[in-house]
Each structure stands twice: as C-alpha cells, then as structure tokens.
Amino acid sequence: QVQLVEFxxxxxxxxxxxxxxCAASVSIFSMNAMGWYRQAPGKQxxxxxxxxxxxxxxxxxxxxxxxxxxxxxxxxxxxLQMDSLKPExxxxxxxxxxxxxxxxxxxxxTQVTVSS
Length: 116
Known about the structure:
- There is one protein chain.
- By secondary structure, this protein is mostly beta strands.
- The chain is about 0% helix and about 55% strand.
- It is built from no helices and 11 strands.
- The chain has strands spanning about 5, 10-15, 20-25, 30-40, 45-50, 55-60, 65-70, 75-80, 90-100, 105, 110-115.
- The strands form 2 sheets. Strands 2, 4, 5, 6, 9, 10 and 11 form a 7-stranded mixed beta sheet that branches. Strands 1-3-8-7 form a 4-stranded antiparallel beta sheet, with no helix packed on it.
C-alpha cells in the first residue's frame, strides 16, 4: 500500500517561514506529479503547488514568490518551503501524489497556523 506522510506544520507568526515535507513509501518515479493542497475551515480544498516528474512547477497565485516546491528523488520526498507566511495561509496542508498507474494518494494532513 502506497502511503504519504506529511510533517513540518506548526504555529508561526506572520512573516516567518516553515518547511513541509511529504515522504512517499514508493519511488517518486511512480508518480506523474506531486503537490500540496490546503483547506481552511469552511472552504474548498485548493491547490497550492505541484511539481511534475519533469520538474515543472506550478503555484497558486496567492503563494507565488513566497512558496517553493521541490523534491528529493533519492529520499522519495517532496518539500514545500513557505516564506513570508501570512495569516491567510492558515489551513490544513495535504500532500498529493498523482500515480502513473492512474490513481491519487493523499497524506493525512498537517496543520499550519499563522498568527498576526
């Protein structure tokens, strides 16, 4: 069974940084892409950032210039470096993997809270 495990969330003040990690139990080469989504209370889950197997990165407009997605293929891990955090970034962040075999996998979520 393929699993994704996220960690690195926490409570920070506005303007500070946080790095999220998502470790997969299988090779990243088994995936078309990996990404991060987030969901705030009462809101839809939204795309934050993705990275394809070719290394192409996409970001939500709200995080461009502040967040950076990267990967370490040897560690089967994708990261989300979050700088200049804002209170509106507060949400549960979920790791996602789009598998080559035709299905998606979701991590358990990690809470990010940014105070004013």
